[in-house]
TrEMBL record:
Residue ranges, annotated region (Disordered): 52-78, 102-130
SPX domain segment(s): 1-375
SMART domains on file: RING (SM00184)
One MF term in the entry's GO annotations: zinc ion binding
Residues covered by the RING-type domain: 429-468
Protein name: RING-14 protein
PROSITE patterns in alphabetical order: SPX, ZF_RING_1, ZF_RING_2
Keywords: Metal-binding, Zinc, Zinc-finger
Biased composition (Basic and acidic residues): 57-70
Amino acid sequence: MHFSKTYTQILESLPPELQEKRYSLKKLISRVVSELSSLGLSPTVLQELITDNEAGTSKDGDNGTDEGTHSDSSAEGPRIVYELVEHLDRIEPHLKLWVDIPESQSSTDAERGPPDEEPEGEGGSSREMKPTTNVLWSLHQKLQERQNVDPELESLEVPHVSGPGVDVDDVTEITSPAVAKGKQEVVIPLISDTEFFNNLISALEGMSTHMSTVHQEFTKSLKSLSRTISESALPASASPSFHAHSAVSSHPGSIMVSAMQPRQSDLYSWREIFQLYVDTEVFEHVGEVDHGERSVEESEKKLKLFVEQATQRGLADHRNFKSPTSRKAFESFIELNLLILNIKKFSEASAEATRKIIKKHTKRTALPLSYPFTKSSFTSLVSSTSSSALPSHLALFSRLTATSLPRTLVQAIGETLLPIIPHVDDYACLICTSIAFKPIRLDCGHLFCVRCLVKMQKRAQADCPLCRAPVVLSANKSNVDWALLNFMQDWFPLESKEKLKSNDREAAREEMEELGLDPDKACLVM
């Protein structure tokens, strides 16, 4: 399918505010072609001139000369360069040509007429120059007239051509002095091409401004959602029965944990949702294989999979969510992810549309852009170059091509929303990998659960398993991290209670083994 149709279909699937940001510059490209043709520089002629230019450049390059600064006087035909001149508020494309300054000729030679009047096959040029349509012929004629008047010709006034004919007396610009003996530099401003690029830049600036607004609104919505989830995912300390422990009022061996939670708390439902979201890896793959950002198609499938699994587990309904506020918050969470997906679609489609329109411009006009607008080379350039180092118009293209906004929004979710619910893996003992309840912080600063520390002491293992500092045997109840202990029983009441039970069972088993009893055998009373 043609990309323009694909682009239209993609935009039609997006919200109305994104559909309005489409742009089309095909008509302007046609006007650029018409303007060039009115100058006698049809795509075919331009292609031949550029081919000659590249051949001459290669020849000059062998002699150590700089491209585009001067031309070899022995080169046949005019040399031509297409340039984009950047101003603060616009881009002005122009053609820079180097034409031969004709030698003084007799009036008889001057009256012979233009080269295209010579019969074909009798030495006529393969690129015919008609006096009413070809600016190159007009420039040669004017150079000849000026040379007859002033042999020390220094500059040439360039005609502005807006119609099919060339009026060499309609002066718009004065070029620089001759750049080489027998050559004259001529600059031709391209009016329609200027309009093309300024419209393109204007469209990209409009998209960039809209994306900035979307980013600001997304940040506000994300902060509001974070507050809502915080109010519904209440920890155990929100219950009046919660009791904090301290070294002053508590003994480590007598600590008990209640699994009671506030009546309207959806803490564990949100924890399960966020864990499922992280495991699904909707927008980015974090594994070692295929690490990096997912494509639009992959992200769409992963988001659909996340919603399906959450629905199957009943995470979004009254079976798990006790508060109606939580159910609305979950819908808002899905909407934010859909927004990221839509922005991702829009960014990639618009970046590809920009690349395609530049490619079409180059193909139809034969004007060679010196910047890498192929998909692979452009992406490589943008990823390896800072925006400040790029030309201003290329930096605008990079804002869409790099598709940085979707990644920024995904990172915002990971930095602002997900940390609201602490994850148990962040508070695990590095030895047993379960929650480090009754956490013992050694003098070296590393943390382990009490049971793992007791085992190390029984084995007379004096060194810390992480840093090898001799601090294990000297640890006692003064090494209990009371603040972290209270935090764990506050946010992980179920895990903390289960860890205490597991510790008690393991301690009882060890005592029986020390007495020579087999804990797996039933007790017989004689």
